[in-house]
Design goal:
This is Mitochondrial import inner membrane translocase subunit. The chain has two helices and no strands. Helix 1 runs antiparallel to helix 2. The longest helix is centred in the last third of the chain and has 39 residues. 72% of the residues lie in helices and 0% in strands.
Length: 102
């Protein structure tokens, strides 16, 4: 997480902040995984006569998971881009009276 502005935090506070951010990332990863499983299971699995997936179900789950992960990655990328734009906007307007609109 290098490169994040820490705002002059002490070393201890910075470590604490990094720990909290790591916890948030783990929680977000678990949420993504749980949503992926629920969504793909609901959309793809419709036969409960066997403990194994049928060929079409397995193909559907693989396609669903790939699509879901690509969408999540794209959303994360857009979020990071927007955050970067906001940070650039904040650093560009620091010291001004806030009249910097796009």
């Amino acid at each position: 997480m290098a490169g994040l502005p820490t705002g002059g935090l002490s070393s201890e506070d910075e470590k604490r902040m990094m720990g909290i951010m790591q916890e948030m990332q783990i929680q977000d990863s678990m949420r993504l995984y749980n949503e992926l499983v629920a969504t793909c299971f609901q959309n793809c699995v419709d036969n409960f006569r066997s403990s194994k997936l049928e060929g079409k179900e397995e193909a559907c789950v693989v396609h669903c998971a790939q699509k879901y992960l690509k969408a999540a990655a794209r959303a994360g990328q857009r979020f990071a881009e927007q955050q970067q734009q906001q940070m650039m906007g904040l650093s560009g307007s620091s010291g001004s009276s806030g009249g910097g609109s796009k």
